TrEMBL record:
It comes from Streptomyces spinosisporus. PANTHER family: MARR-FAMILY TRANSCRIPTIONAL REGULATOR, TRANSCRIPTIONAL REGULATOR, MARR FAMILY. Signal peptide: none annotated. InterPro entries: HTH_MarR-typ (IPR000835), MarR/SlyA-like (IPR039422), Tscrpt_reg_IclR_N (IPR005471), WH-like_DNA-bd_sf (IPR036388), WH_DNA-bd_sf (IPR036390). It comes from the Bacteria. Residues 26-161 form the HTH marR-type domain. This is MarR family transcriptional regulator. Pfam families: HTH_IclR.
Length: 166
């Protein structure tokens, strides 16, 4: 964990964000994105464990399923998260044991398994969402200054656009 007294200006800048190397802006932006993801994951781990009592990888499964009201096939979950199917099977079993997901056979495909969130998981995610969002925002603000934001705009130009007024 990062030292709470550590200030963002005390942290070394991501070398890829400087823009004076060999990499094109898209790859520099990708490196900034990876650094930001690492910072978010590091801070989320303990919050996820405290609030949801699941591992970070199990949390990613819950988040993916939260956006799919009818559930997803396990092969698709493995694909989207870049996880081996055997590891996913173990994680799904842990989540099912905790009462957070259901597992059922896919109609017409005896080998297909579909997983979905339970109401318990939906309630826990809803209750923890404010804390989780604050954690993500805080982690990003500590690692992404104006230079990193500019580098990200190389990968996601819509980040440079002004948000529309409500």
């Amino acid at each position: 964990m990062a030292d709470p007294e550590e200030h963002p200006t005390d942290l070394p800048e991501c070398p890829s964000a400087q823009g004076d190397g060999l990499l094109p802006k898209e790859l520099r932006a990708w490196m900034v994105l990876l650094a930001a993801m690492g910072a978010v994951e590091q801070e989320l781990r303990s919050v996820v464990k405290d609030r949801l009592d699941v591992s970070h990888d199990e949390f990613l499964i819950l988040c993916l399923l939260a956006e799919q009201p009818d559930g997803l096939r396990m092969t698709r979950v493995a694909e989207l998260l870049g996880r081996p199917k055997t590891r996913l099977t173990y994680q799904i079993a842990c989540l099912q044991h905790a009462g957070l997901v259901t597992r059922k056979s896919v109609c017409g495909d005896r080998r297909g398994i579909e997983v979905a969130l339970t109401e318990k998981a939906r309630r826990l995610l809803e209750e923890a969402s404010g804390t989780l969002a604050t954690t993500v925002t805080g982690a990003l603000s500590r690692v992404m200054g104006p230079d990193q934001h500019a580098a990200m705009c190389g990968l996601l130009p819509e980040l440079a656009e002004e948000p529309e007024a409500p």
